[in-house]
Structures are given as structure tokens and as C-alpha cells.
Amino acid sequence: MNGEAGRCGYSKCRAELPGPGMQGGRPRSFCRDTRWEGGRTCAQLARAEREALGALGLDAGSATFRLDADRLREQLDDVRGPVEALTEALAAVTTRLDEVEAAAVASVEAAHAQVAEAERARLAAEEAREQAEHRMRQSTISAERAANERAEAVERASAATRQAMEATEALGAARQQAEEATTSRRTAEAQAARAAERAAGTDRQLREIAVLAERAIVERDAARAAEADRRVESESLRADLAAERAHLRDAEAAVTTAEQSTARAEADCAAAEGAGLRAVADAERALADLRIQSDHDAKQARAERAVLTTQLTEQKRLAQEQALQARTEIETLRADPARGKAPRLHPDDLQAVIAALTPADQPARPLLT
Q1: What is the 3-state secondary structure (H, E, C) of 29-96?
Q2: For the residues of 304-324, what is the DSSP string, one character each?
Q3: Cα(63)–Cα(305) distance, integer angstroms
Q4: What CA–CA distance (Å, rounded) separates 121 from 9?
Q5: Are the CB atoms for 17 and 7 separated by under 8 Å?
Q6: How far apart are CA 198 and CA 345, in angstroms?
Q7: FRET label pair with 71: which of 36, 88, 99, 234, CA 20 to 30 Å apart?
């Protein structure tokens, strides 16, 4: 007859075990053929589980635990509230830091745009300078070519000048000979002319007197006509002068009006320029104030983050202290039989309690290694 079937002693297996059989014998406590991670058996894992519970200070002799679960849960709830408040505060600080960072990034992008514009202006200036240097080199080459051509022209002109001087000297000798002949001819002609002039002198004088008389009469009539014309012209000039004076007065008035308009326009331009300069100065001051405020907000946010981090660290420390206190109370309750029999916890529930007691910045240590 088969004996009563039992279950595996490993808490995560709990598989039914076959009885001792017809021959009897000691019943099995663990599965024989079941293998877990790493090729370990149920017996090896159960032994590791007992060692882990012993390291936690719990009595694992009979795999039963006496825990005051309600008190431990209340303490964990008390710790959860401040931690959530600190988490919300950290989220608000992070949001503020994101806003400050966005403003700083916008300012940096604007500065980068100004730098890019300055770089483009510098490149344009360098291109203009290179073009000017190219034109200057072309001008230098043209000037050298012109200087060479001028030197060649000067040489040709010098040769032509020498030839002209030689021709001039020859021409001077010929002219001297011609002048000597001309002088002799003129002397003879002068002597003949003086004789002819003495003969025609009387007739010429008479004709000149008659001509002078007629000319005087004509000049007298012309003078009378010119006097009349001058009188008419003088009247016309007086009328024209009066009209020109009127036009001049109108022109002077128009000039005065234009000067006044120009003065007003210059004053308006100066006022507009001053307003523009003031606006630019105000914008620069506002930008400087914005940068100062951004730096101040960033520093304040970093300071708030540091304070909140310190508070969170302090809350974690208090939570660890409370967890240690809870563990102490657990040990006290386990050692005090007057507390009564506590409910039995499954190893999975024990693992959840250990995870709640472990600080957030440390990984929870499993029961099994």
C-alpha cells in the first residue's frame, strides 16, 4: 500500500511528492528531478532560502514568521506621503529648470544668429577686399603697360624731334637767304611807294574829308535813332526790373518757407534719431536685465533642487530609520510570546516587505542567491 503523498519543501515549488511505496522508508522532502535556474535542485534552493531568512534575523527553523503587518504598513504609509510631496516638488523644479533652459537656449540661438550675420558680413567684406585687390592688380598691370607704351612713344618722339631739329636748321638757313632777298626787294618797293604816295596824297586827303563828312551825318542820325531805342529799351528794362523784383521777393519768400520746413524736418529727424537711440538703449537694458534674471532664476532653481535633494535624502534616512525600527519591533514581537500567534506569511509577501524596506537608490536583495 502506498504511503500518504507529501509536497516539496521548496516554497516556490510545492509539487506533490510520491509516497514511500510498498517497501516503506523515509518520505521525500524535495523533488528529485526538478531543476531551476543554474541547474540547482529544490533542496539547494530551499537551503539558500533558509540562509537568506537567517541573514535577515528571522527564525527560519520552521519557515514561519510572526510580523505585525498592520503597524509596518502604517509606517510605510507615513513615509510615502512626504516622499510623494518631495517628488512633486522635484517635478516643479524640473519644469522651472526646463523653462529657464528654454529661455537660455533662445538667447543662445539669437546670439548665434547675430554671430552668423557678422560672419556673413565678414565674408562679404573679404570678398569685396579680394575684388578690390584684383582690380588693383589689373590697374597695376595696365599702368605698367601704359608706362611701357609711354616710354616707347617718348623714344619715338625724341627721334622725331631730332629729325625736326635737323629739318629746322636747314629751313632756318633757307629762310635767312630768303629774308636777305626779301629785304632787298622791300627796300626797292618802299622807295617806289614813297614816290607814288606823294603823288596821290592830295586826292586821298580830299576823298577822306568827304567820307568823314558823310560818316558824321550818318553817325548823327544813328545816334538819334539809338537814343530813341535806348529810351524805349530803358522803359522796357524798368518794367522787366519791377517784374524781376516781384519774382525775387516771391523766390525769397519761398526760400524762407523751404528753410523753415528744412529746419523743422531736421528737428523731427533729430528727435526720431534720439528716440531710436533711446529705444535701442532700452532694448539693450531689457536684454541685460533678462539675462541677469535668467541667471538668477537658474541659480535659484539649482539652489531649490539642492535643498529638495537634501530633504529627500533626509526623508530617505528617516524612512530607513523607521524601517530599522520596524525590523526591531518585528524581532521584539517574535521574541515576545505574549503577542499571540501572528499570521503566517508566504515568502512572496516577505519579499514585498523587504522591497518596501529597501532604500530607493539600492536594489532589493532577493531571498535566494
Answers
A1: CCCCCCCCHHHCCHHHHHHHHHHHHHHCCCCCCCCCCCCCHHHHHHHHHHHHHHHHHHHHHHHHHHHH
A2: HHHHHHHHHHHHHHHHHHHHH
A3: 46
A4: 84
A5: yes
A6: 174
A7: 88
* pLDDT tens track, the chain, 369 positions: 344 458 898 888 888 888 776 776 788 888 988 899 889 999 999 999 888 877 776 654 444 444 444 555 566 677 778 888 888 888 888 898 888 888 888 888 888 888 888 889 989 988 998 998 888 888 889 888 888 888 888 888 788 788 878 878 877 887 788 788 688 778 867 876 786 777 577 667 767 767 876 887 888 888 788 878 878 887 887 888 788 788 878 878 877 887 887 788 778 867 877 877 887 688 688 778 878 987 888 788 788 888 888 887 887 788 778 778 767 776 776 666 454 444 444 556 555 555 555 555 555 444 443
Q: Which pTM was predicted?
A: 0.26
Of 103, 87, 106, 102, nearest to 305 (Cα)? 87
Contact yes or no for 31/13 (Cβ under 8 A)? yes
User: DSSP code of 339?
Assistant: G
| CB distance 1 to 22 below 8 Å | yes
Q: Identify the H or E element spanning 342.
A: none
17: β partners: 6
C-alpha to C-alpha distance for 65 and 191, rounded to whole angstroms: 173
- CA nearest to 79, candidates 362, 303, 346, 324: 324
Structure-block grid coordinates of residue 351 = 519579499
Give me the count of residues in the chain: 369
